[in-house]
Amino acid sequence: MKIFTIISRLLVGSLFIVSGLIKANDPVGFSYKLKDYFAADVLNMEWLVPFALVLAVVICIVEIVLGFATVMGSKMKPVSWLLLLMIIFFTFLTFYSAYFEKVTDCGCFGDALKLTPWQSFSKDAVLLVFVLVIFLRRKAIELNSSKEDMIYGISSLALISIFSVGVLHNPWPFPIWFTGTILAIILILKKIKPLSTKTDQVVFVIPALLSIIFSAYVLMHLPIKDFRPYAEGKSIIEGMKDCEELTDKECPEYMVLYKMKSTENGETKTVDSKEYLEKKLWEDKTWEILPDETENILINEGYEPPIHDFSITSSEEGEVTFKYLEDPNYTLIIIAYNINNENNIEVKDKVNALAKGATGAGVSFIGLSASSDEDVDIFRHEVQAMYAYFATDEKTLQTIIRSNPGLLLLKAGTVIKKWHYNDLPKFDEIDVLKRTNG
Fold first, then answer.
1. For the chain: N or C, fewer Cβ within 10 A?
2. What topology does CATH give the domain 313-437?
3. Model pLDDT, residue 432
4. Phi-psi bin for 75: left (phi > 0), alpha (psi -120 to 50), beta?
């Protein structure tokens, strides 16, 4: 049982660290998922929506800290209770998503690892078993010895390497360096005499402090790893192509289930489209299809384009999506999904200067927003914006960049660079970037 307990600690602790870091890398995106859960038609907890971002950050930090505490064997009585509560919370959310088909992407791993609702629930259900082992054995788990620190630390790093490099769709080694750095700091501090008697505090404080710094950094800038289809270097045009345009991709496959009724005795039966065609059932006039009870079922998911809701439109010009995506020259786009956000006012001088520089250099400069035409017109007049704004879906803009406003540099539909509003460059810097990229 002791070996199984150790294995459980290493698996749970390592997975909590990686999971927490993936969410902490993009707390804004995680907060969007929490808002989806809080919606009236889901959990009906709309009063929590204003606190979604704070909750997202707190959950990430707690998850990371609990992961380190579990690996180090620190304060396992309260830690095991928190582990159990968190995994029950996540298991409930994933079950709710799967069973009721609500918020079908739980957001636990964001776009780093796409799981179906039932796969997410299965993952949490298995993890719950390991957490229960830790919970039941909590009184027997003590703070690691120096030897155990080395063995468990190396083992945890190996597991984190597997999770973050071998399992994620887009490998991300950052959790390895983050964990290795924290473990090294803890081991060093444990050897310092004044702190050797306060190991428990060290185990909690160091991961919490560095997690807070990490979360604050990505909130004030952008995620250090972009797992979304609009990441730098990715082509929006390619991301929009479906299976018919990409010959190496398999298309989704559907089957029709026909509910049929006998015209002679009223008997009903269900046949699939394959049987219907093979037996030429349409020739049998004693049976008729009940169209209201016929359904399509997906039998092979196939390829789904990662980008399926991107468009640029205006009330005057209509859709102009490919006018800008297929432009072989550079295009600068200021994205403000909520034009009324005060950040747009604060950076207006920088944005106007960028627009002026772009115009002088023959570079297209446009704005994208999900706000109403009226709100956009009021804003443009207030900030004296000399560039046009177009309409794009709010969730699409939130997916493109985790900043309101944020700046995007495109060339022939490929994302060259993205900037948070705290990091808006001068046009001279973009000019240098243009020359670098050709």
1. C
2. Glutaredoxin (3.40.30)
3. 74
4. left
